[in-house]
Amino acid sequence: MDCKIDKKGHKKFTKKQIIAIVIPVVTVAVLIAVIVPSVVWATNIFRISKVDKINIGDSQEQVIKILGEPYNKNEYGYEYYSDNYLKVLRQLDQLNGNERGLTAFESSDDDVDFGEDKETKLEEQLRKMTYQYIRVEFNSDKKVSSVLFDAEKCDSKEYKKVVKSYDVQGKTSIQQYDVFNLSYSVKYDDGSFYKSSVVNEICADFVKENVNWQDRYGNEYSIKINVTPITRLTSDIVKLVAGGDKSLLTEFEIPSNITSIDSDAFDGCDNLTTITMPTSAISSIPKKYLENVVISSGTSIGEYTFSKCSSLTSISIPSSVTSIGDYAFSGCSSLTSIEIPSSVISIGNDAFSGCSSLTSVTFGDNSQLTSIGSFAFSGCSSLTSIEIPSSVTSISNWAFSGCSSLTSIVIPSSVTSIGVSAFSDCSSLTSIEIPSSVTSIGDYAFYKCSNLTSIVIPSSVTRIGFVAFEYCNSLTIYCEAERRPSEWDIYWNHSNRPVVWGYKK
User: Can you give 122-179 as a three-state secondary structure string?
Assistant: First the structure.
């Protein structure tokens, strides 16, 4: 280096040389002053930006990658403490001969000697200490379910943190049967931070308007959800509801907005036994899947709706239904009982014909039911008793024919006519009382009621049809009339069963 020498023999640097030396020194000093704190800050886990890098659904490995090894850990949660807390906790561990955490935090030179009351003092110090704390919680799949950073945690205090701001992540406008997945993060006014899932489920209910929830401090939140209803049920939707495996599905609820169902929608649902559905969707359901049915809405059960559903054992009909159509349940050989709500005003022809396992039929209180169609309960060979509602005015042709286990029946005073073969082949029927409201008894009305022993025919009956009591071999007939009315068929008593004329009750 070229420099001058002064009178005392010292080297004298030029201005240019001084600048060349100073600038690098200053630069290094600045870099040290800036970079070192920046590195420390960047590695500090006790700050929101660091903790916020953990997302709901992250793995345990990802958490460790971001925050490092926790001080306490198990399969459901990781815990991190700031240094001031760990220092005291470390001393307490040493006092108790506990090596917990000493591999990560070596004892320091300023650790004090342990006195007789040291353990109590340390525990009290921990309890009153304000420190920084992180807890990451996991669900059963070992995925992150919540993240907490408490900037001013103190175990001796219970307080509600004040919300500074919060943000919700996830779609708030979805289509019905979408996976509904929302999470939120909260910043509190003391610098704390909390992140958790709001909901993670399939949105089957399109009526949902708001989702409400609370954070761990009791603060309440709400968000509006817009759900677009679908009208078509597909195989993919059923699979989604089943969690990916249709064979695990045992029950399914079809929303009222569904108007069509794909033919393969329930393929593979080998264990599906219970379906809840609106009447509008019933015709689209493969009958092999109908075992237990709950009708959720609708005003009528149409013709042939459940006809030949041989696996159907039970059905629940809502009070919205007003009519049951022709052949609606014919051939349902496994149906054992049914409750017909008071809202039903008509039961169609053959509605329950051939329901050979049907043992009981219950009508709702104050029923408006006015008519029971032809063959309505024909062939219900297991039906033992039935109470016809007082609103019914006529018992149609073959309505109860072939009900071979029917032992008794009460005909209400509202009934004016008993149709053709209405009770034919009711071989277990032993007695029946016909009310004074009845004016007509049809042909074969009690044909082959072989165990019927007595019947009282009121004077109001002006017509009895052809062989009405044929093969009633045990029957005695009690007539209030003094003689056969002119409109009674000449062969009304073709079997010549004993008749008591002018009978008085």
Answer: HHHHHHHCEEEEEEEEECCCCEEEEEEEEEEEECCCCCCCCEEEEEEECCCEEECCCE
Residue 67 has φ and ψ, to the nearest 5°, of -105, -15
Contact residues for 365 (Cβ-Cβ < 8 A; gap 6+): 342
Distance in angstroms (rounded) separating the CA atoms of residues 257 and 260: 9
User: Which among 413, 412, 426, 433 is positioned nearest to 377, based on CA atoms?
Assistant: 426
The sign one gets for the Cα dihedral 355, 359, 362, 368 is: positive
Q: Averaged in consecutive runs of 10 residues, what is the pLDDT profile of the chain (505 residues)? A: 54 61 54 41 74 94 95 93 93 73 40 64 91 95 95 89 93 84 93 91 69 91 87 87 87 81 82 79 67 80 84 86 91 90 92 93 86 92 89 94 91 94 95 92 96 94 96 94 95 95 90
Tell me the two tokens of residue 128: 């009153």
Q: Which residues on neighbouring strands pair with residue 212, listed in sequence order?
A: 222
Whether pTM exceeds 0.85: no
> Cα–Cα distances in Å, from 330 out to 50, 273, 372, 376, 384?
68, 20, 14, 9, 18
**Strand ranges inside 178-290, DSSP E:** 179-188, 193-202, 210-214, 220-224, 226-228, 232-233, 251-253, 260-261, 274-278
Q: Which tokens hold the place of 277?
A: 């559905």
Closest CA to 291 of 249, 258, 341, 348: 249
- Taking the C-alpha atoms of residue 268 and residue 288, their distance in angstroms, rounded to an integer, is 12
